[in-house]
């Protein structure tokens, strides 16, 4: 019995050291000795908390601005062409519809003219349904259900069936277009759809676009514990996204959003450091290597990947992600800490120290221009 007690005490002391002593020592080292450029990282003075990653390429920004300017001048045709030219790249087509939604928020006269001129246009009808869902959600807000005033909740729930009906009509205009199905999947949880109703919508979406990123993000929300699923169902859904993510798609990153959902709901929850978790994170990192570097979803996902690798004690892989992220730190989870620059710098320093990475003989030089 004495031997067993001694072993138990030894294990307890080791755990105590790992949980409390080691982090304190690492944090002190980061504060006093960490020089980022010695490890292939941009120095703290060039960190930028305004964005998660570099701004879009100039030609892309100019194209989007031209579409917006034409719309606000009353010409809807460039907006229609902008969406149509995405072809069957359904993720890109959805992203362009989201841009048009933002443009319509500033001034919707051009959109009303488009709908009047082309009542049979699926993209216009999908955008109309999506705007209806957004307006309903603005009334509800982002609070938990019990915190929302009854009058606002009643208005919210009354608006969603009409939005879903508009999306159904849009789907008839172009049966191959998954856009209307994304709108319906988005509205389903607010409309209190049960599992069988939701699954019917989900099957309709993936039959048209099996790897639709936004569709999967909305599906993840439905299956999380705060809506109509559970932690287990949400994580199973997220693992499936990793397994079926095709080359060049950031779809595997849905798993990172699932981890973020878990930690948002229970900040003190310890991430299980299991072989399966580490294997999935490695697989996600490999998947991201095949995504186009200018994909605007990628920087946000790399921040989450670095963070959860660090929490999973994958220190060297986390450091590699920090190197790929560069000087940008305007993203979750660093914003949750209050000062993203401080939180980001501390995380990079921990990755360096705990990976036991040695400084380079000649620190890398980083320009200060942004």
Write the layout of secondary structure elements.
Blueprint: H1 2-33, H2 58-72, H3 77-84, H4 90-106, H5 109-117, H6 122-140, H7 150-173, H8 179-188, H9 195-208, H10 213-223, H11 231-244, H12 254-265, H13 275-288, H14 298-311, H15 315-325, H16 340-355
Helix pairs in contact: 1-16, 2-3, 2-4, 3-4, 4-6, 6-7, 6-8, 7-8, 8-9, 8-10, 10-11, 11-12, 12-14, 13-14, 14-15, 15-16
Overall SS class: mainly alpha
Q: What is the helical fraction, as a range of percent?
A: 55-70%
Low-confidence stretches: 15-21
CATH topology of the domain at 58-229: Serine Threonine Protein Phosphatase 5, Tetratricopeptide repeat
Task: State the order of secondary-structure elements, H for helix, E for strand.
Answer: HHHHHHHHHHHHHHHH
Q: Averaging pLDDT over every residue, what do you get?
A: 90
Annotation, overall tally of beta strands: 0
Number of helices: 16
Largest sheet: none
Report the radius of gyration as a whole number of Å: 24 Å
Which CATH class of the domain at 58-229? Answer: Mainly Alpha
Question: What's the architecture of the domain at 58-229 in CATH terms?
Answer: Alpha Horseshoe
Query: Which oligomerization state do the chains in this entry correspond to?
Result: single chain
């Amino acid at each position: 019995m004495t031997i067993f007690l001694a072993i138990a005490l030894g294990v307890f002391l080791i755990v105590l050291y790992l949980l409390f002593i080691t982090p304190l020592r690492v944090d002190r080292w980061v504060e006093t000795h960490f020089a980022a450029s010695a490890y292939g990282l941009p120095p703290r003075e060039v960190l930028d908390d305004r964005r998660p990653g570099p701004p879009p390429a100039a030609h892309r920004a100019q194209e989007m601005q031209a579409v917006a300017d034409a719309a606000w001048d009353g010409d809807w045709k460039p907006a229609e062409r902008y969406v149509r030219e995405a072809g069957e790249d359904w993720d890109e087509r959805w992203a362009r519809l989201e841009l048009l939604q933002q443009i319509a928020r500033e001034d919707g006269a051009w959109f009303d003219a488009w709908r009047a001129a082309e009542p049979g246009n699926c993209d216009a009808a999908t955008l109309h349904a999506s705007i209806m869902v957004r307006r309903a959600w603005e009334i509800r807000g982002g609070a938990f259900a019990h915190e929302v005033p009854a009058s606002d909740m009643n208005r919210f729930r009354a608006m969603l069936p009409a939005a879903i009906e508009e999306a159904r009509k849009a789907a008839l205009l172009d049966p191959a277009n998954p856009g209307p199905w994304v709108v319906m999947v988005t509205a389903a949880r607010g409309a209190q759809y049960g599992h069988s109703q939701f699954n019917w919508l989900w099957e309709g979406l993936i039959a048209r676009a099996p790897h639709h990123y936004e569709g999967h993000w909305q599906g993840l929300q439905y299956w999380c514990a705060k809506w109509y699923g559970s932690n287990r169902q949400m994580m199973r859904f997220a693992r499936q996204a990793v397994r079926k993510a095709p080359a060049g798609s950031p779809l595997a990153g849905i798993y990172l959003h699932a981890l973020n959902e878990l930690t948002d709901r229970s900040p003190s929850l310890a991430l299980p450091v299991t072989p399966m978790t580490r294997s999935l994170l490695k697989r996600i990192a490999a998947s991201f290597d095949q995504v186009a570097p200018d994909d605007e979803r990628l920087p946000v996902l790399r921040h989450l990947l670095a963070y959860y690798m660090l929490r999973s004690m994958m220190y060297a892989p986390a450091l590699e992600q920090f190197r790929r992220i560069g000087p940008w730190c305007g993203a979750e989870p660093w914003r949750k800490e209050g000062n993203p620059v401080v939180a980001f710098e501390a995380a990079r320093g921990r990755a360096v120290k705990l990976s036991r990475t040695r400084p380079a003989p000649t620190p890398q030089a980083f320009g200060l221009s942004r």
